[in-house]
Amino acid sequence: MPGMAAYAASKAGLIGLTQVLASEYGSHNIRVNALLPGGTDTAAAQEFADTPEAKEFVSNLHALKRIAQPEEIARSALYLASDASSFTTGSAMLVDGGISINRV
After folding, report:
1. Are residues 93 and 22 in contact, defined by beta-carbon separation less than 8 angstroms?
2. pLDDT tens profile 85-101
3. pTM of the entire structure?
4. Separation CA 37–CA 79 (nearest Å)
């Protein structure tokens, strides 16, 4: 999508920062991970996709053909914050409904 250079660069920078911090602080038992969500049904998203056509377009960008409910993203954050992810660090966790792999 045109006009996304700054977004792509900042996301790549965040992933790199996550990996470096995980490496630097791992010996202190500090885990660092990034959560990379896809489209999520929030007030801001509703303003962006404010027509049925816009909502359908955004939904179709995702392999699952829908956007996430906030609770779905929160469950992934809960996993990263829990002991269940005790051996997870330096990870860029995609919780994006397949937007990163889908080609419209």
Report:
1. no
2. 999 999 999 999 999 99
3. 0.85
4. 14
